[in-house]
């Protein structure tokens, strides 16, 4: 191949990658680039890759991004830029170079606007949605709760999950799929089935990659596959790819451009490979980092592509590479710069469509149209229905401004896209939030609430536009429907309605033995309650009032006593809904019912004591007990909890309280296998089935109705047939808590049908039922002594199952029959009401299943209840398949959802 053809082919390859990955980047990004020349041959470019020098370049680029305003972030900023700045802030602990709130808002507006109206090209839609998920996650926003200016919720994750891979791959997808896969890992957003499909697709693309086009595409594929390196089918392919990448590296350490070098460096960092010292990526003494740095600007605040001219895209990619390389060089561990799965996230709200909003252009069509316009205030009509004549290419914006201008009204349109205030001709104004937290202006077109901004909505002849002020859009039926139903509104309210918290901080006094004490004064508690009540009044809603007592002490402390005066306990019991005591050893959270109980039990001052005791020093345990426990308890510590009021010890509570203890999970540990143990008097262990580990806070939380001794354990669950199964995490979660077992020592058989006997046994395990008391089953087909006899008798006595009447009389349980999906729904519904005495919450809107007529009358209400509670889904979007047999995996998923959300 001639040199000219090679150059042409590389140029085309770069353009393909650039086009497919920068769908969200306007052309102005490159039009604004400077023509500053780079001397890429000078000696000063060589050997510039020390950590301190890399840090200097990174900080200068970060300063450039920090200085860019809302105009840039709302038009040219991409998810890669958001990722880079977020990763930089964490990696370098820089508090000075901040992106302004206005710039973040502009980026939110742009991102939401980009995915509001998707096109017909599936691959482009997937790219935009993945960009939204990754970009929003980088800045701590929840991609499942993106709200348009007209109060319509967009769930970017759900839309991305609904895209079929086979449809997306009909167009170029090789450089899009890696970032879709990365986006699906920004939270518990997708099933393993879909992720595995993407892994398989990328493996296929890697196998067929044309290396003569350069390393950009294979490097991007590697970025998507890197998190799956330990999979047996992925590791050998990545290892082969690393060999090829090493072979393709040129003698100056580079692959021919800053973009190529940066893409490879980011991928290597994900694998924990140091791009500056790994011998595979050093050629003639020049490392890959040396290669990248040959393209830096002399001012150290940007990069060129390969021709000595500053390039925005090259700078963007190199910024990511510098951060990733710095982390690997510093820590020697794998570093995924795209991973924000452990970050807390909150909903994002658009108040425009981008950065600097230009005034909408005047309509230019020669044709005219007539639309009807009405303006309604919170009470009464300000502009009765009137006809407005417009050009045929006019938008809602033009109808609104013309109608109000003709009536001599004034108004404020935020970012040219959201009406925040209207003042009528008499001078009366209605402004957003005037009538409460959820009040404001909305509009409808033909009785429907659009999901796009007023400057984007094109009108047609005869359309009816109604502008109206709502005192609470969450109570507006049309707004509720646009937001995704009552379940979405409930979730919105949960996101925005937080407890009003009165916070108290107390410094503990610590003695030489590491024992601490903290006295909370009655005045401190009264002041905290007053602060919470003030916030309550200002909020306009009715949140719970919480008092949080934070005890500050050295993390090495082994005991802490927190003392509350009796008078303060009385005030807490009467005025507060939640009390949290936060210490370095553990956190305790009491709800209203337990506070009432504490008030009734109080016989003087109340003292909470939390101890962290080394197992070997636990005097109450025998040496045999300690030896047995040593194998199961992680860290070798036991947590003791005590409460004393006056001279009286209080161990039992009115209801479950929540305890959280710190635990740093090892990288090799599946968080679903981390459990809490209750240590009984004789040293035996009981698993707290409702325990859940939070990867973000690194806290293990569980509920209990009594104070005692507890410990953290890890159960390594390793069935050989679930490693790639979509229900792996749910199965591990249940197996670690002894709710489910495998069919043998090695396998779980997740896709096997589950029998009625197996199902009720799982529920008995979940309830912790003592089955020794249930040895006389009433079913004719269940014999005493059979492995399921006790659980069948228990389920019958508790009203979970009734059996079927046989022709000859008597009841049959049909233990070996596969349980149907509708029967499983009925039994689970009964379990929650009869055993747990709990009501399921409505978190989803009801699905109108097309096969609802096939659901038995006895099961209809249970199916609806569990579907709305998020416990069970249809086999497809609108097919429930009530008489199909349930699988062991499906059952595990349902019980896991119940445990983690309701128990």
CATH architecture of the largest domain: Alpha/alpha barrel
Write down the overall geometry. globular
Major sheet, described briefly?
A: 9 strands, mixed
Low-confidence stretches: 1-10, 16-49, 482-486
Proportion of residues in β-strands: 15-25%
Comma- or semicolon-separated keywords:
7-stranded mixed sheet, 4 domains, alpha+beta, 903 residues, Ferric Hydroxamate Uptake Protein, Chain A, domain 1, 30 strands, Glycosyltransferase
Would you kindly provide a written description of the structure presented here, covering whatever features stand out?
By secondary structure, the protein is an alpha+beta fold. It folds into 4 domains: 3-25 and 37-343, Alpha/alpha barrel (Glycosyltransferase), CATH 1.50.10; 368-493, Ferric Hydroxamate Uptake Protein, Chain A, domain 1 (Beta Complex), CATH 2.170.130; 498-714, no CATH class; 728-902, no CATH class. 37% of the residues lie in helices and 18% in strands. The protein has 29 helices and 30 strands. Strands 14, 15, 17, 20, 21, 22, 24, 25 and 28 form a 9-stranded mixed sheet that branches. A 7-stranded mixed sheet has the order 13-16-18-19-23-27-26. It has a 4-stranded mixed sheet with strand order 7-6-12-11, with helices on one face. Strand 3 (282-283) and strand 4 form a beta hairpin. Helix 5 (79-92) packs parallel to helix 7 (122-138), helix 10 (177-184) packs parallel to helix 12 and helix 11 (192-207) runs antiparallel to helix 12 (216-225). Residues 1-10, 16-49 and 482-486 have low confidence and may be disordered.
């Amino acid at each position: 191949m001639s040199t000219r053809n090679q150059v042409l082919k590389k140029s085309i390859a770069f353009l393909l990658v650039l086009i497919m990955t920068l769908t969200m980047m306007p052309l102005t990004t490159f039009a604004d680039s400077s023509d500053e020349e780079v001397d890429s041959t000078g000696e000063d470019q060589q050997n510039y890759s020390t950590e301190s020098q890399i840090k200097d370049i990174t900080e200068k680029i970060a300063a450039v991004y920090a200085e860019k305003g809302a105009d840039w972030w709302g038009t040219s900023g991409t998810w890669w830029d958001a990722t880079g700045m977020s990763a930089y802030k964490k990696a370098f602990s820089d508090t000075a170079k901040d992106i302004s709130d206005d710039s973040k808002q502009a980026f939110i507006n742009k991102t939401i606007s980009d995915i509001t109206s998707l096109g017909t090209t599936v691959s482009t839609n997937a790219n935009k949605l993945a960009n939204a998920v990754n970009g929003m996650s980088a800045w701590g926003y929840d991609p499942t709760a993106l709200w348009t200016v007209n109060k319509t919720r967009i769930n970017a994750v759900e839309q991305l999950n609904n895209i079929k891979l086979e449809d997306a791959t009909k167009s170029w997808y090789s450089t899009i799929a890696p970032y879709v896969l990365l986006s699906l890992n920004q939270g518990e957003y997708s099933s393993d089935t879909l992720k595995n499909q993407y892994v398989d697709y990328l493996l296929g693309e890697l196998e067929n990659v044309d290396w003569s086009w350069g390393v950009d595409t294979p490097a991007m594929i590697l970025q998507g596959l890197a998190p799956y390196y330990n999979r047996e089918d992925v590791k050998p392919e990545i290892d082969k790819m690393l060999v090829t990448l090493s072979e393709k590296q040129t003698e100056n350490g580079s692959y021919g451009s800053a973009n190529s070098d940066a893409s490879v460096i980011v991928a290597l960092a994900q694998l924990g490979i140091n791009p500056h010292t790994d011998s595979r990526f050093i050629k003639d003494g020049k490392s890959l980092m040396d290669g990248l740095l040959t393209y830096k600007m002399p001012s150290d605040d940007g990069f060129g592509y390969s021709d000595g001219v500053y390039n925005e895209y090259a700078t963007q990619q190199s910024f990511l590479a510098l951060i990733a390389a710095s982390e690997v060089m510093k820590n020697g561990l794998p570093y995924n710069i795209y991973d924000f799965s452990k970050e807390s996230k909150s909903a994002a709200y658009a108040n425009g469509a981008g950065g600097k909003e230009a005034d909408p252009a005047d309509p230019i069509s020669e044709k005219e149209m007539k639309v009807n316009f009405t303006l309604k205030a919170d009470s009464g009509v300000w502009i009765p229905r009137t006809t407005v004549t417009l050009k045929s290419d006019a938008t809602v914006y033009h109808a609104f401004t013309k109608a109000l201008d003709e009536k001599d009204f004034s108004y404020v349109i935020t970012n040219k896209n959201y009406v925040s205030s209207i003042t009528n001709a008499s001078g009366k104004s209605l402004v957003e939030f005037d009538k409460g937290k959820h009040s404001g202006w909305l509009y409808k077109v033909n009785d429907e609430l659009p999901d796009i901004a007023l400057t984007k909505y094109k009108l047609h002849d005869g359309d009816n536009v109604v502008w109206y002020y709502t005192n609470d859009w969450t109570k507006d039926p049309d707004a509720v429907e646009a937001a995704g139903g009552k379940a979405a509104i409930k979730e919105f309210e949960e996101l925005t309605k937080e407890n009003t918290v009165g916070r108290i901080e107390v410094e503990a006094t610590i003695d030489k033995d590491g024992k601490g004490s903290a006295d909370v004064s009655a005045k401190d508690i009264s002041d905290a309650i007053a602060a919470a009540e003030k916030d309550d009044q200002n909020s306009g809603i009715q949140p719970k009032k919480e008092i949080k007592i934070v005890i500050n002490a050295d993390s090495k402390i082994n005991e802490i006593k927190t003392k509350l005066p009796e008078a303060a306990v009385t005030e807490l019991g009467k005025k507060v809904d939640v009390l949290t005591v936060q210490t370095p050893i553990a956190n305790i959270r009491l709800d209203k019912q337990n506070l009432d109980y504490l008030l009734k039990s109080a016989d003087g001052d109340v003292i909470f004591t939390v101890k962290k005791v080394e197992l070997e020093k636990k005097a109450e345990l025998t040496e045999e007990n300690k030896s047995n426990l040593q194998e199961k308890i992680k860290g070798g510590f036991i947590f003791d909890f005590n409460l004393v009021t006056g001279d009286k010890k209080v161990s039992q509570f009115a209801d479950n309280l929540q305890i959280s203890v710190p635990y740093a999970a090892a990288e090799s540990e599946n968080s679903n296998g981390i459990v809490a143990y209750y240590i009984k008097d004789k040293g035996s262990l009981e698993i707290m089935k409702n325990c859940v580990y939070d990867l973000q806070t690194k806290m293990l939380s569980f509920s209990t109705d009594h104070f005692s001794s507890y410990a953290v354990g890890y159960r390594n669950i390793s069935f050989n047939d679930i490693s790639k199964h979509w229900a792996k995490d749910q199965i591990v979660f249940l197996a670690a808590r002894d709710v489910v077992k495998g069919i043998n020592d090695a396998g779980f058989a997740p896709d096997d049908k589950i029998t009625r006997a197996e199902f009720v046994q799982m529920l008995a395990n979940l309830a912790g039922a003592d089955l020794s008391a249930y040895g006389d089953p009433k079913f004719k087909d269940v014999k005493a002594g059979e492995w399921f006899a006790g659980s069948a008798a228990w389920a019958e006595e508790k009203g979970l199952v009734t059996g079927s009447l046989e022709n000859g009389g008597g009841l049959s349980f049909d233990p070996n029959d596969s349980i149907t999906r509708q029967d499983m729904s009925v039994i689970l519904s009964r379990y929650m009401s009869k055993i747990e005495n709990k009501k399921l919450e409505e978190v989803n809107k009801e699905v109108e299943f097309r096969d609802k007529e096939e659901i038995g009358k006895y099961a209809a209400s249970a199916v609806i209840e569990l579907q709305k509670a998020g416990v069970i889904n249809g086999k497809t979007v609108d097919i429930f398949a009530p008489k199909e047999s349930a699988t062991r995996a499906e059952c595990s998923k349902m019980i896991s959802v119940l445990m983690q959300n309701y128990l």
